[in-house]
Amino acid sequence: MLLEGFKLLNLSTIILTKNEEKNIAKAILSIKKISSRIIVVDSFSNDKTTEIAKSLGAEIYLNEFINYGVQFQWALDNCNIDTKWVFRFDADEELSKSGEKEIEFLLKKHDSTNVNGLIFNLEITFLGKKLKYGGAYPFRKLCIFKFGKAFMEKRFMDEQIILTDGKSIKMKSISYHNDYKDLTSWIDKHNKYSTRAVFDYFENVNKKQIISKLDNSSILRRFFKYFIYYKLPKILRSRIYFIYRYYFQFGFLDGYEGYIYAFLQAYWYRVLIDAKIYELKKQKL
Q: In this model, does residue 6 exceed pLDDT 90?
């Protein structure tokens, strides 16, 4: 039975930001009831992100952004974490009420067990539509962990939290991923992601991928990416991936929003990555 009521937990929540004034208040308010510390590591935003965050009780740190993995690990190493648990939380996420209760219950239950990580579930909203199909639901990632029992991979893209001891378990509740920025911002963000994905490709495609320490969802994504997707011809792989996501994973059941999401995320974005990989390879000839 879940515990009644709320009180601040032995939990620090870390949020990385860059121009997130449209999202940050929603994120902080959703985790404020359970976080004894809310730490915002900002990459020198030029909007009101830090002003809003500070007004809501967050601690503000400034650090130049290299990539997400480096920035998050910098936060772990430099923000004087003094809580037992850490919550990796994004500015465009919102913790649900059921998520609040479950986190409170699980952190207390596993205070002294070898469960050192919790896998967080998210429902993605795109163009106002809650996506239920196309491989988008639920999106899972290991986000809550005991401090000192995990580290963040320093990758350019697809970075994951790795437990150094113990095991992780899946949460049951669903929380929300809902970016209040417009589609142009989504496209700009994914254009930047594509550049990071290219760096990640050249750095890791020929390396032996050590995936055994990842959580199961991350293992599947990493295995598919390096052992299947990148083995396919580049002119076909993005098409195949789109067909798989839209038809075989029933993305079409999410309506027109589902089509746009599948096209942009599973096709356009992948073609853009391949085009940038091709461009760099040609420059090196």
A: no
* Cα angle, residue 62 at apex, residues 152 and 162 outer, rounded to 5°: 5
Among residues 75, 92, 99, the alpha carbon closest in space to that of 13 is found at 75
Is the domain of 94 the same as that of 112?
yes
Q: Kindly state the tokens that stand for 173.
A: 């509740």
Structural domain tally of the chain?
Answer: 2
What confidence tens digit (pLDDT) does each residue in 172-219 have? 999 999 999 999 999 999 999 999 999 999 988 877 666 667 777 788
Closest CA to 150 of 81, 104, 219, 65: 81
Nearest to 12 by CA among 34, 30, 36: 36
232-284 pLDDT, tens digit each? 999 999 999 999 999 999 999 999 999 999 999 999 999 999 999 999 999 98
Residue 214 lies in a domain: yes
Domain that holds residue 147: 9-178
Question: Does residue 217 or residue 76 have the better pLDDT?
Answer: 76
40 and 161 fall within a common domain? yes
Count the alpha carbons within 13 Å of 241 in the hemisphere toward its beta carbon: 25
214 and 138, same domain (yes or no): no
At residue 216's C-alpha, the angle toward residues 37 and 231, to 5°, is 120
